[in-house]
Amino acid sequence: MSETTTEELKSVQQRTAILAQAIPGVLSGFKRLSDEATKPGSLSPGLKELIAATLGVTRLCEDCILFHLSAAKRHGASRQELVELLGIAVEMGGGPAIVYAGKALKIFDALS
Amino acid sequence: MSETTTEELKSVQQRTAILAQAIPGVLSGFKRLSDEATKPGSLSPGLKELIAATLGVTRLCEDCILFHLSAAKRHGASRQELVELLGIAVEMGGGPAIVYAGKALKIFDALS
Amino acid sequence: MSETTTEELKSVQQRTAILAQAIPGVLSGFKRLSDEATKPGSLSPGLKELIAATLGVTRLCEDCILFHLSAAKRHGASRQELVELLGIAVEMGGGPAIVYAGKALKIFDALS
Amino acid sequence: MSETTTEELKSVQQRTAILAQAIPGVLSGFKRLSDEATKPGSLSPGLKELIAATLGVTRLCEDCILFHLSAAKRHGASRQELVELLGIAVEMGGGPAIVYAGKALKIFDALS
Amino acid sequence: MSETTTEELKSVQQRTAILAQAIPGVLSGFKRLSDEATKPGSLSPGLKELIAATLGVTRLCEDCILFHLSAAKRHGASRQELVELLGIAVEMGGGPAIVYAGKALKIFDALS
Amino acid sequence: MSETTTEELKSVQQRTAILAQAIPGVLSGFKRLSDEATKPGSLSPGLKELIAATLGVTRLCEDCILFHLSAAKRHGASRQELVELLGIAVEMGGGPAIVYAGKALKIFDALS
User: Fold this and answer.
1) Do A98 and F27 touch (CB under 8 A)?
2) What is the maximum alpha-carbon separation in chain F?
3) Which of A8, C19, E40, E75 sees the fewest Cβ atoms within 10 Å?
4) D7-38 b/e with 16+ CB inside 10 Å = b?
């Protein structure tokens, strides 16, 4: 994993941990929501995390992309699926989605 | 309450109920999150619901405005506080926020 | 002008007038801002209003589109310029921009 | 298919056809983009259209949801997959995504 | 105040000053709007600036957060109020709002 | 051209090239769309690229601003036109648009 990517991921996790101390009830509700949204079903957890990252692409949220691509990789998600999802992101988001789809692919390849 | 406003509120509630049957775990996590976010604290639940409605204004989400203004009214939130919040929404959202701030004020006045 | 378009335009204007009574200082600051932003310069007021409407397209704000296209027509803005601007909106906004660009063109043609 | 849903779908298609006459080159480029983005691959066209609709949910674009759910149905996409995708939309979009996820489910059920 | 935070705040202020030289009328209209929106009323200026920062959280605008939290601190706004507002931001913005709420809390703590 | 601006522009171009290898059909459709949207017409290519950059301002997409301002400069677009467009962006985008309008002006002046 590239050093910058690792550090930025740690930074997101640390900020989220501090937020969780400040509003624990809100974050634990979100964790329940999030666990339910990405549990195995008709779609696999890996694909679901890739889709969450794709929503991060159209929302132009780089740290969201990083966070969910990291989770997707832990679930063994494939680059080919990501690539196809990025095409849909471009269809629905135009030029700005191209910029963040490019960031997403670079982050995916940088994650070990 | 004006008839249109009442019907649209019911419509939002019905659609959300059907969604809750489809993804109960996700919605129950969200309910926990939402209850925690609007519980009494330094800020009152009424003001918190007004602020949620204000976030709906800058997000251009009319049903969100309706839903949260209805909750704000149940908590006895004041029109003056709403009006001041709409000013901040205009500062942060420009022209589109003016359009939805106008909708918000009309909805607030239509809710009995 | 088609009846629906006329009524919706009136409705936006009425809601904005009520908002202006509630937060007159905020709205008068915005009016100053808005007058300055669309005054004659290197670009004409008509083109500037078309561009404001185009920003309404990518922001998915139908009433914004209506409001600014109405102003653009009063300044004699051309359909050809609108059409070229809508192409840029599609480039920068993808599928959702196509939906609202279609609405914009229909509104422009409906305005007398 | 419910009458309102059918009419709204026709309305989107008509507005898009008029836009395509105005900027044919832009729309034909978009059609190429769109066809490529949703062609069969690791993910099926039906699932890809559901994902496009999900991006419409977080973008709060009701006509986008309608357009892509209609395409998804033509490809035989399943309600269970939609439902799981809506959970991810809620995770990434909060309250406003709940409102539009509810609309999406209602539209899917209304489409024959 | 941490050095990075100080420098970034200065950078925002410098860029805004250069913009104000280029379009003085627009920016002076905005200043009027902004002063009116955050003046003392039912809600205090400090709380109003925190709310502006919260709108910056759901808009994913880091410099907006920095700018308005700095103003909030000058007005003596409390961390507890910010924390409660961030909970509402998460309710209305989902995962991306968590990322920027984490940034907001870090910035607030870094501001002296 | 300032070194940072040059490097960031190269970085956007490299990421987009890698994306184009991954989804060539999608990107070639987008290129067609984009070429059509910015070709000479009633509005010049230079002005059209400035308008694309302005849409990047209200979308809060810094790399989009950089990419389209660079193209605008190649077409000989004028600073005065950009400045007037930024005023419209502020009208339609409020505070966050001021932040990104400031970035846009700085980028334009940094591009040789």
Assistant:
1) yes
2) 39
3) E40
4) ebbeebeebbeebbebbeebbebbebbbebbb
Cβ atoms within 10 Å, residue A64: 27
Q: Which of F26, F55, F58 to mutate to test the interface with A (most CBs of A within 10 A)?
A: F26
State the residue range of the domain holding A91. Answer: 3-110
- F36 interface with D at CB cutoff 8 Å: yes
Of the candidates C45, C59, C40, the residue with the CA atom closest to the CA atom of residue C100: C59
Q: Which residues of A touch C91 (CB under 8 A)?
A: 94-95
Q: Which two tokens stand for residue D63?
A: 């006509």
pLDDT digits (tens, 9 = 90+) for D51-74: 999 999 999 999 999 999 999 999
Does the pLDDT at position A39 exceed 90?
yes
> Cβ separation of F29 and D23 shorter than 8 Å?
no
Q: What confidence score (pLDDT) does residue A22 get?
A: 98
Q: Per-residue pLDDT for E1 more than 70?
A: no
The total number of structural domains that make up chain B: 1
Q: What is each CA distance from C53 to C73, C99, E74, in whole angstroms?
A: 11, 14, 37
> Is residue B32 less than 8 Å (CB to CB) from chain A?
yes
Cβ–Cβ below 8 Å for B34 and A35: no
> CB of A20 within 8 Å of any CB in chain E?
no
pTM equals 0.97
Residues of chain F with confidence (pLDDT) below 50: none
The model's confidence at residue C11, banded by pLDDT at 50, 70 and 90, is very high
Report yes or no: A94 at the B interface, CB cutoff 8 Å. Answer: no
Which CATH number does the domain housing residue C105 bear?
A: 1.20.1290.10
What is D6-27 written as a DSSP string?
A: HHHHHHHHHHHHHHHHHSHHHH
Q: Which residue of B has its CA nearest to F90?
A: B94
Q: How many CB pairs under 8 A join B and E?
A: 81
The band of C56, judged by pLDDT with boundaries at 50, 70 and 90, is very high
Cβ of D54 and A55 within 8 Å?
Answer: yes
- Minimum distance, in Å, between the CA of residue D28 and any CA atom of chain B: 30
- Which of B15, B17, B106 lies closest to B69, judged by CA? B106
| CA R_g for chain E | 14
Cα–Cα distance for residue pair F105/F109, rounded to 1 Å = 6
Contact C90 D61 (CB under 8 A): no
* pLDDT tens by residue, A49-104: 999 999 999 999 999 999 999 999 999 999 999 999 999 999 999 999 999 999 99
Q: Is D99 on the interface with A (CB under 8 A)?
A: no
